[in-house]
């Protein structure tokens, strides 16, 4: 054993005063002791007592000298194991000489000895404190022996001196043992508190990570984003070296790696394998319970031993992902040493797996819906595009017949051709609006700064013939000055035009349609208000759905596809805005559109 190791084993500082800097309070107190000794020597000098002041003065100066030495050690930050032991020893020596020259065993200095017994018992190891207490007891015996040899026995007699010495020594050991017991008790409590604090800190960190995981998974429904959020959360957890998410295929027969953290690209790139060939994951999925492998290198059921050896992976736990009682896959967590997962570890991982399973299942469903939606959109674009050309050709032929270019037609024939032409008109309108519905998406928008005054003027001018024909008054209220809004001109024109056109269409003759614009700090609101037929509460719930038309609207206007308002809603939402309606049957309707002035700020 090295000399330093020997010192550690003997003295074993408790840690409170285990470095020189932490003993500064003792040094400060020692300066006060020096002042007390100097005052004592002064009293002895002026009082002309039998006791000489010179030894007390020398002791005071000696204490002052070594105290400055201790202070120098602190300021220079010199490594000094057993620094507290040295201080206790020197102080006891100083007390020894003070007692020796100020009355021996009956000196008041003896009463300070127990203070250092308490300090040693509290702050040093049991062995160190008992050794120091033994040294202090030896000093007391030396003082007693000196009293006997020099004949300085007080009037109380030898027996009193013997009894006093034994009592002092007994008190020293009692205080030391009591201090050791209290110190051990407090240390155990401190250790318990530290353990609890660490546990609470870990639990809080895990709770924070679970909360962050929930937010991250809900921020984006895509499967890749969800999986990356899960692996990131688990891989950053204490003691976890690597994380692998393996998901079942649709048929449930195979399982494949979908996302990883902490493993090589070669391992992450492994393809789909049969679930039957992965007994660990199969057991986890069948039992719906985690499966723990203490050492994957020694487990016959573990498949990729070479990968684990190369990447330093030892322990593993496979946690099933179960959503609505249906297996989705597993999360494999690895450590780089043999680790027994605690109850808290399992609780955290199970909590993460439970929320992850639901998010993964939702992401898979979202992926399927997105694929179906893309297929639907592609079909609609193809079908409507292919339908429009032949229908336009048929309508051209019908117009030629109706205009008389194909010869004379009877009244009955003309009626039939006109009905057919109207049907073709409605089909072409439907085809155009279907294409429009699919075409108005955020990725197809061309955002630019548009003057709202000019845009509204265009819309009102285009609809004026219809409103004039019905005797409807158009009133536009818009703040003075330039109002610039970042938007797709044609798309917002389509929204305002559709809403004002509907207001004119469903308002009785000589009615009023108002357009009110309000400019706020970071958005514009546009309200279109009429005193027309209104919309029932039941119909308002479905008003923005595709192909829906309110009952009273169908009575007034037969033609209509029910796509206009759904197109408006799609356009407004693609501009990060909102659209809403308030109406009363027979009491008019109010549509309100709110749009951000600047798309960049809104998206940021």
Strand order of the largest sheet: 3-2-1-6-5-4
Structural class: alpha+beta
Fraction in helix: 55-70%
Q: Please tally the β strands and state the result.
A: 13
| Largest sheet data | 6 strands, antiparallel
Low-confidence stretches: 1-18
Question: Count the helices. How many?
Answer: 19
The N- to C-terminal Cα distance equals 65 Å
Taken from the alpha-carbon principal axes, the silhouette is elongated
Rg, nearest Å: 46 Å
The average pLDDT is: 82
Write up what this structure looks like:
With 604 residues, the protein is an alpha+beta fold. 59% of the residues lie in helices and 14% in strands. It has 19 helices and 13 strands. It has helices at 3-11, 24-47, 53-75, 83-101, 113-123, 126-150, 158-219, 223-235, 265-268, 279-287, 305-311, 343-402, 411-439, 452-470, 489-505, 537-541, 551-556, 564-574, 599-603, and strands at residues 242-248, 254-261, 273-274, 291-293, 315-323, 326-335, 448-451, 473-477, 484-487, 512-519, 523-530, 578-583, 589-596. Helix 2 (24-47) runs antiparallel to helix 3. It is elongated, with a radius of gyration of 46 Å.
In short:
With 604 residues, this protein is an alpha+beta fold. It is 59% helix and 14% strand.
Question: What are the key terms here?
Answer:
alpha+beta; 6-stranded antiparallel sheet; 5-stranded mixed sheet; 13 strands; 14% strand
């Amino acid at each position: 054993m090295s000399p330093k190791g020997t010192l550690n084993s003997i003295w074993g500082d408790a840690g409170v005063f285990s470095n020189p800097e932490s003993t500064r309070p003792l040094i400060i107190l020692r300066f006060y002791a020096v002042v007390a000794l100097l005052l004592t020597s002064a009293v002895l000098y002026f009082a002309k007592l039998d006791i000489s002041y010179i030894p007390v003065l020398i002791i005071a100066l000696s204490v002052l000298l070594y105290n400055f030495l201790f202070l120098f050690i602190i300021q220079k930050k010199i490594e000094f194991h057993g620094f507290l032991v040295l201080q206790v020893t020197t102080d006891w020596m100083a007390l020894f000489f003070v007692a020796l020259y100020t009355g021996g065993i009956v000196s008041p200095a003896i009463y300070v000895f127990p203070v250092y017994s308490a300090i040693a018992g509290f702050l040093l190891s049991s062995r160190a404190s008992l050794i120091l207490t033994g040294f202090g007891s030896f000093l007391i015996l030396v003082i007693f022996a000196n009293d006997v040899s020099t004949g300085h026995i007080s009037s109380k007699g030898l027996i009193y001196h013997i009894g006093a010495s034994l009592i002092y020594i007994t008190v020293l050991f009692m205080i030391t043992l009591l201090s050791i017991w209290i110190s051990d008790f407090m240390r155990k409590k401190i250790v318990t508190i530290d353990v609890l604090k660490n546990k609470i800190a870990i639990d809080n960190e895990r709770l924070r990570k679970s909360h962050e995981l929930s937010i991250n998974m809900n921020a984006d429904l895509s499967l890749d984003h969800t999986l990356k959020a899960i692996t990131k959360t688990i891989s950053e957890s204490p003691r976890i070296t690597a994380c692998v998410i393996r998901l079942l295929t649709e048929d449930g027969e195979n399982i494949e790696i979908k996302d990883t953290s902490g493993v090589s690209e070669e391992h992450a790139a492994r393809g789909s394998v049969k679930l039957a060939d992965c007994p660990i994951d199969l057991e986890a999925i069948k039992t719906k319970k985690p499966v723990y492998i203490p050492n994957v290198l020694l487990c016959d059921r573990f498949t990729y031993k070479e990968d684990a050896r190369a990447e330093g992976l030892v322990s593993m736990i496979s946690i099933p992902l179960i959503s609505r009682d249906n297996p989705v896959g597993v999360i494999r967590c690895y450590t780089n040493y043999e680790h027994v997962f605690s109850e808290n570890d399992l609780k955290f991982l199970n909590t993460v797996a439970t929320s992850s399973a639901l998010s993964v299942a939702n992401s898979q469903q979202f992926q399927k819906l997105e694929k179906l939606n893309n297929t639907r959109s592609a079909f609609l674009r193809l079908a409507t595009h292919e339908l429009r050309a032949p229908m336009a050709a048929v309508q051209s032929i019908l117009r030629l017949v109706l205009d008389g270019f194909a010869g004379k037609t009877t009244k009955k024939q003309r009626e039939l051709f006109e009905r057919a032409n109207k049907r073709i008109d409605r089909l072409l309108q439907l085809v155009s609006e279907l294409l429009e519905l699919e075409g108005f998406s955020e990725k197809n928008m061309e955002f630019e700064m548009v003057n709202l005054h000019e845009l509204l003027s265009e819309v009102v001018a285009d609809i004026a013939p219809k409103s004039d024909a019905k005797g409807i008054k158009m009133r536009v209220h818009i703040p003075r000055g330039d109002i610039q809004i970042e938007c797709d001109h044609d798309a917002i024109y389509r929204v305002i035009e559709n809403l004002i056109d509907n207001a004119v269409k469903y308002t009785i003759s000589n009615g009023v349609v108002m357009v009110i614009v309000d400019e706020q700090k970071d958005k514009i609101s546009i309200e279109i208000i009429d005193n027309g037929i209104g919309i029932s509460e039941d119909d308002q719930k479905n008003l923005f759905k595709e192909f829906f038309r309110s009952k009273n609207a169908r009575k007034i206007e037969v033609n209509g596809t029910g796509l206009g308002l759904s197109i408006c809603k799609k356009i407004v939402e693609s501009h990060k805005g909102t659209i809403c309606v308030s109406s009363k049957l027979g009491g008019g309707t109010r549509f309100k559109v709110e749009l951000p002035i600047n798309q960049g700020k809104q998206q940021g």
